[in-house]
């Protein structure tokens, strides 16, 4: 009996889709939207000074106001500009926050990760001084409801002392935890509401800074997204323990390098008075264009 070897399609004739980088194809990028918004913006008298000179450390006030309104609509809950700071995207913001608020050689003993997690995040932690033996993985539960807070609670109880409730210093955390609460990369899990509240309670109990990669929250197309971790933290008086780190990379264009963080005002103020912001102003002065894009769409 003769057999025919299956060789598959001629790969030279099949268009390839590159999944190695998480970015849209060029035909999906909103180039005309950016062009029209920029044109309309620069037709306004005085725009040159507002856009092309140094920006306020936290970002353009108009941008922060428009961003708060946009997020309030998307999250279906009030967001206030006093809780926001413009950033050049989630990756750079993560490294910036770690450099400012953690002390890996002294007080910040552990870097805790949702396991599995975004694979490129480890080098960001190494860049600011964390060593691999400080990395701790906390598994997800098998039902798809995110990080196992019971396992996390046992680890924290065994490894860290209880936090001093009187301490409000946002540069003195015993550990830092990175997670993607909604549509996690790579597992796609979403942390359930009870576990979100428990995670914030644990962060306060053991003085843990929780850095939430919230870039996918607005990309929920079926059902509703649970309340964000930062919203729970904003309800609790005292020290800030949660940062919501967000970006326009997933919802508009990665090359815009525009994003924001949301947290308690004490933490936002600390980020805004850092040396690099004080020297060069906001690292994301594209906010004026982003605001004009929103008004153009609406």
Automatic annotation (TrEMBL):
Keyword Transferase (UniProt): yes
Pfam families, per database record: Aminotran_1_2 (PF00155)
InterPro entries, alphabetized: Aminotransferase_I/II_large (IPR004839), PyrdxlP-dep_Trfase (IPR015424), PyrdxlP-dep_Trfase_major (IPR015421), PyrdxlP-dep_Trfase_small (IPR015422)
One annotated GO molecular function: transferase activity
Signal peptide coordinates: none
The protein, known as: Pyridoxal phosphate-dependent transferase
Domain Aminotransferase class I/classII large: 17-265
CDD domains xrefs: AAT_like
Keywords: Transferase
Gene3D superfamilies: Aspartate Aminotransferase, domain 1, Type I PLP-dependent aspartate aminotransferase-like (Major domain)
Species name: Phycomyces blakesleeanus
């Amino acid at each position: 009996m003769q057999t025919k070897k299956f060789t598959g399609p001629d790969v030279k004739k099949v268009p390839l889709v590159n999944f190695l980088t998480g970015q849209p194809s060029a035909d999906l990028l909103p180039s005309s939207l950016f062009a029209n918004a920029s044109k309309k913006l620069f037709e306004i008298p005085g725009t040159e000074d507002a856009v092309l000179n140094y920006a306020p450390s936290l970002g353009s006030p108009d941008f922060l106001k428009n961003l708060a309104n946009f997020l309030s609509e998307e999250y279906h809950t009030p967001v206030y500009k006093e809780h926001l700071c413009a950033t050049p995207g989630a990756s750079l913001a993560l490294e910036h926050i770690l450099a400012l608020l953690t002390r890996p050689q002294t007080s910040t003993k552990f870097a805790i990760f949702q396991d599995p997690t975004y694979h490129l995040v480890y080098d960001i932690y190494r860049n600011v001084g964390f060593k691999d033996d400080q990395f701790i993985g906390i598994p997800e539960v098998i039902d798809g409801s995110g990080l196992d807070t019971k396992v996390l609670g046992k680890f924290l109880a065994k490894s860290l002392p209880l936090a001093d409730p009187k301490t409000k210093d946002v540069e003195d955390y015993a550990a830092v935890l990175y997670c993607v609460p909604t549509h996690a990369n790579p597992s796609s899990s979403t942390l359930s509401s009870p576990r979100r509240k428990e995670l914030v309670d644990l962060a306060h109990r053991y003085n843990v800074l929780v850095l939430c990669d919230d870039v996918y929250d607005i990309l929920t197309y079926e059902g509703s997204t649970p309340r964000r971790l930062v919203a729970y933290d904003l309800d609790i008086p005292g020290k800030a323990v949660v940062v919501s780190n967000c970006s326009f990379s997933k919802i508009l264009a990665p090359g815009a390098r525009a994003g924001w963080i949301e947290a308690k005002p004490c933490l936002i103020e600390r980020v805004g008075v850092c040396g690099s912001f004080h020297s060069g102003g906001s690292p994301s002065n594209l906010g004026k264009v982003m605001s004009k894009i929103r008004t153009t769409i609406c």
